[in-house]
Amino acid sequence: MKPISVGLLGIGTVGGGTFTVLERNREEITRRAGRAIAITVVADKDLARANSVVQNRARVIDDAWAVVNDPAVDIVVELIGGTKIAKDLMLKALENGKHVVTANKALLAQHGNEIFAAAQKKGVMVAFEAAVAGGVPIIKSLREGLAANRIEWIAGIINGTSNFILSEMRDKGASFDDVLKQAQKLGYAEADPTFDIEGVDAAHKLTIMAAIGFGIPMQFSAAYTEGISKLTREDIQYAEQLGYRIKLLGVTKRKANGIELRVHPTLIPARRLIANVEGVMNAVLVRGDAVGQTMYYGAGAGAEPTASAVVADLVDVARTMTADPEHRVPHLAFQPDRLSNVPILPMSEVETSYYLRLLVQDKTGVLADVTRILADLGISIDAMVQKEPSEGEDQTDIIMLTHQTVEKNINAAIAKIEALPVVASKVTRIRLEELG
Ligand code: HSE
Q1: Among 31, 254, 330, 331, which is 20 to 30 Å from 245 by CA?
Q2: Dihedral sign, CA of 25, 26, 30, 31?
Q3: In the CATH scheme, what is the code of domain 138-299?
């Protein structure tokens, strides 16, 4: 049988890894797919870079449109990134009846509904394992391995750059700015690291997982996104003293009145496995009603780990091209006409516990005033630490952990606490998940 012909758009880090892995493991991949898979054409603006990787083993051109319009190409692998040109190219490839494999989480989180509808219309696949947590097969696990379950919640460390920064801040007591510079030097963070550190990249990935877990359309614009740039090493140390680690967590939960969809720094009990995921590694914890908790861990970025996911998708597509094309696994796990319109909850309705840090004057009755405000709003305190003021100071930190409450109650409490004359600065609030 003729090899399946793949057109590769973009041969940067992941594209290069894909080329290498396909080549190195060709024999086993062919045995798995039932047919050889060959990259026949590569499009990249940087022809010199492309030629140095490809070394005459495929055609190299600088025009991506020629690939998506090439009748000889069966599958287009989109590794250009971004949401403009990549979207137009992808829609064109689908219109031309080609299957698409992509690692583009921003594009899917924002335009996935339109893209999947276009694919559905043409009876072709859009495969995107590499879009979430790099080499970790979380899409396949959610979509197929856990198909028996009613998913209750998903919580993940899904941005390696921010996890690296938090790990270094905790380990070395370093400041956010210093570690960010180090991450950039090591090539982890992008030159413009906003998407990584402000939680946007994690929110893209979480949006995709929520859609698959709960059978809802992609709703990135409804995701709450808060990054790590305002975290201080003091908060990390206080959390540590109370038995918690702070992680940038993507959390999506099914509630009676809707779905929580949120990315923010989160205290997690230090004894949980996921709290010990350090450096650039990713991990996703999924709770299903039948299976209980399962955890998926591995490299969330990098050439070959991400290529591992891209090539697995190529094998999946190749299999459906050779056998049983009518019985594909749906893009979002649920049949497209059976998606649910359950709402994404506004942040004010989200329920969680909280870490609060207050700088207060060390005076009689201060604590009583603060706890009265919390009690009046029905917020129960779980743990509390008051630091002794430093020599010659009359102000000190109070750190409190609350039991679960609704976000609008904590917002009201914080506003009242900040209005107390004895409270000397803004209250630091970090959400806390027991993940039990
Ligand atoms: N920039 C991402 C991260 C990797 O730091 O995890 C690709 O999704």
Answers
A1: 254
A2: negative
A3: 3.30.360.10
